Automatic annotation (TrEMBL), chains A, B:
UniProt domain Tetrapyrrole methylase: residue ranges: 7-214
Entries under InterPro entries matching the protein: 4pyrrol_Mease, 4pyrrol_Methylase_sf, 4pyrrole_Mease_sub1, 4pyrrole_Mease_sub2, Cbl_synth_CobJ/CibH_dom, Precorrin_MeTrfase
Pathway given in the UniProt record: Cofactor biosynthesis; adenosylcobalamin biosynthesis
GO molecular function, one term: methyltransferase activity
SUPFAM superfamilies hit by this protein: Tetrapyrrole methylase
A Pfam family this chain is assigned to: TP_methylase
Presence of keyword NAD: no
Name of protein: Precorrin-3B C17-methyltransferase
Key words of the record: Cobalamin biosynthesis, Methyltransferase, S-adenosyl-L-methionine, Transferase
Length: 247, 247
């Protein structure tokens, strides 16, 4: 495969070198520069060669990373900007397109999708996402809480399976508690809930519980939470949402 | 990698051998039997070796395929049952777990996630899924239309980006028309809509349009439709949904 673009926005999937796509892997092997958040660079460190230049930065430095990647690409270097999961889901794809547009640069960008946390977490939990679902981030840094709340209510009322991203951090605890309260208004307290910490990484921890019993304190920013719909059930330590086949 | 299970439910991603995960690829290389719908077997035919046994069946034969895969696995064969996209999203994972449970078989199953059509389509459209989103199937074969309608209304009202699976077939045309009507009640007629036919395959076709103008007749069962939220816009032939960063 020949690299015909200068800037690749790459989803590395949940964070191991098995669940990454073959395309993402091959591009990462071939680019001259890789730009990413330090934890994500750590996830792919085994494939990095000595010839490759790496630019690492910390949390909340998204704009700085995108700018670095744009600058390298403008210099004619083949550059990959990485996101965990899928770069199009709360990842770097949107910001990169916005900044390239804002700076009126003529730069072709390839967005390479990855397996997002909802799908990776669902696979270890069983088959919770087998019907219509929503993906909602509980982080209110960039989104007003009232809008998040409205979406939680809509998801709960219309019986969507719901995956929560960024559910809880050391500084931000009330959103998950409130989300549970909203779901309890519409859904049985026994509704299955799956909690997956660090999906796909060595530290992965999987817990299957219910809306009523879910231990909020076990949830942090590296956790994905999946709340079943009214048909979901737990069997053999797996969450299953029936699609509707007559078994 | 050693295969330590007898039954693997594998997501092959959008349908090319680049966007498949490295894990899925390696397992498919090593199993003795691959079971799948004929179009999906076609997608991976280049990796199949002469030693491998292939079981193919047609549309709506999902239960038959799962039963075959279970039977092979019970005989001690290493077997992969494939789904396009992610097996946990309207795929084979749920049905397989349900049937294994129903038949009270002690069979360990590995579910191998894949890139689902929402994420694959988003990548070729730009970055439409950068905020909270829903995934809704318009097929009313297994789901009552009233429930689908309720979910469309909830998604439209709470300003979710919405991805439609199974949007329209030769026999089932009114659901997409109705979905558009529902969204037009809540969202600007200029809201961006992305239509991707056969994402990731040779026949891939990408169209960026609006709620008002979307050509319903261009949409079929191989198409993924993504409707933006109130903030989505079109720029340089890409759909961008801002996450909320101050550029």
């Amino acid at each position: 495969m020949k690299l015909n673009k200068n800037l690749y926005i790459i989803g590395i999937g949940p964070g191991n070198l098995s669940d990454i796509s073959r395309r993402a892997y091959q591009i990462l092997k071939k680019v001259e520069v890789i730009v990413g958040y330090k934890k994500y660079i750590e996830c792919i460190k085994e494939l990095i060669t000595e010839e490759q230049q790496i630019y690492i930065s910390g949390m909340r430095k998204e704009k700085e990373r995108v700018q670095k990647a744009i600058d390298y690409a403008k210099q004619g270097k083949k550059c990959a900007l990485i996101s965990s999961g899928d770069p199009g889901v709360y990842g770097m794809a949107g910001l990169a397109l916005e900044m390239v547009e804002d700076q009126k640069i003529n730069l072709k960008i390839d967005i390479v999708p990855g397996i997002t946390a909802a799908n990776a977490a669902a696979a270890v939990l069983g088959a919770p996402l087998m019907h219509d679902y929503t993906v909602i981030s509980l982080s209110d840094i960039l989104t007003p809480w009232n809008l998040i709340k409205k979406r939680l209510e809509a998801a709960a009322e219309a019986d969507f399976i719901t995956t929560l991203y960024n559910p809880r951090s050391s500084r931000r605890k009330k959103q998950l508690k409130k989300a549970r309260e909203i779901f309890l208004e519409y859904r049985n307290p026994e509704t299955p809930v799956g909690i997956v910490h660090s999906v796909g990484r060595d530290e992965e921890e999987v817990m299957i519980t219910t809306l009523k019993k879910m231990p909020l304190e076990k949830v942090d920013m590296l956790t994905t939470v999946i709340i079943g719909n009214s048909q979901s059930y737990i069997s053999n330590q797996k969450i299953i949402t029936p699609r509707g086949y007559n078994i």
